[in-house]
Amino acid sequence: MHRGPGSSDFYRMPNNANTSNPVSAASRPTVSVLMGSDSDLPKIKACLETLGELGIPFEAEVISAHRTPDRAHDFAKGAEARGIQVIIAAAGGAAHLAGVVASLTTLPVIGVPISSSALNGIDSLYAIVQMPPGVPVATVGVDASKNAAILAAQILATADPGLRSKLKAYKTRMAEAVREKSGKLKEGLGLK
Ligand code: AIR
Question: What are the C-alpha distances in Å from 98 to residues 68, 95, 123, 162, 170?
């Protein structure tokens, strides 16, 4: 059974008042953000915020490859038909969610290793990154959920010139911020 974007177990981020490109509540999600547990949410917030800032409609859901394997299967099988174009899957520990989902869809899957266990994310990273040939998961760094959002945006931008412009503007702002920091640092060290 596929759960549609309007059903109660899907979470749609509300409009972000801080962004110049608010996500319309009526927009159909193109990115799905999965997390293995609600305890992962603090590490995923940067991903959700970045998607919102870029004006990308998204959905978010807790699905565990181990605790809810049937839901993981149903989600992966139904995502493409619902219009999802990129899947971000975050999990900690024995983090098999991204790999399981990737095995069931041809949509690009981005894995986010979460540092939620005693092994501080090394286990999650290894569980996600070493996929067998034929079933890739694009793995970002441990807890690097912002990068997952940017990579998802870059994938979508290959067919979306408007989004490409937003990403170019984002990179320009980032470079300006670094230049500013460098100036302040030199000033602080008396190297001007
Ligand atoms: N997890 C949940 N099902 C499978 C896995 N690998 C992960 C979650 C979370 C960690 O287990 O992604 O990072 C602990 O989950 P919880 O719910 O016990 O806090």
Answer: 14, 7, 14, 28, 27
Q: Whose CA is nearest to atom 2 of ligand 1?
A: 36
Q: Give burial (CB, 10 Å; 0-12/13-18/19+) of 104.
A: middle
What is the Cα 13 distance to its own chain's centre?
13
Summarize pLDDT for 80-123 with one digit per residue, the tens.
999 999 999 999 999 999 999 999 999 999 999 999 999 999 99
Query: Each residue of 175-189: pLDDT tens digit?
Result: 999 999 999 999 999
Ligand 1 site, residue 68, Cβ cutoff 6 A? no
Helices (H), 17-68: 41-53
Confidence of residue 26 (pLDDT cuts 50, 70, 90): low
82 C-alpha vs ligand 1 centroid, how far in Å?
A: 26
Please state the atom number of ligand 1 nearest to the C-alpha of residue 93. Answer: 6
Of 118, 111, 159, nearest to 137 (Cα)? 111
Q: Is 125 within 8 Å of 90 (Cβ atoms)? A: no
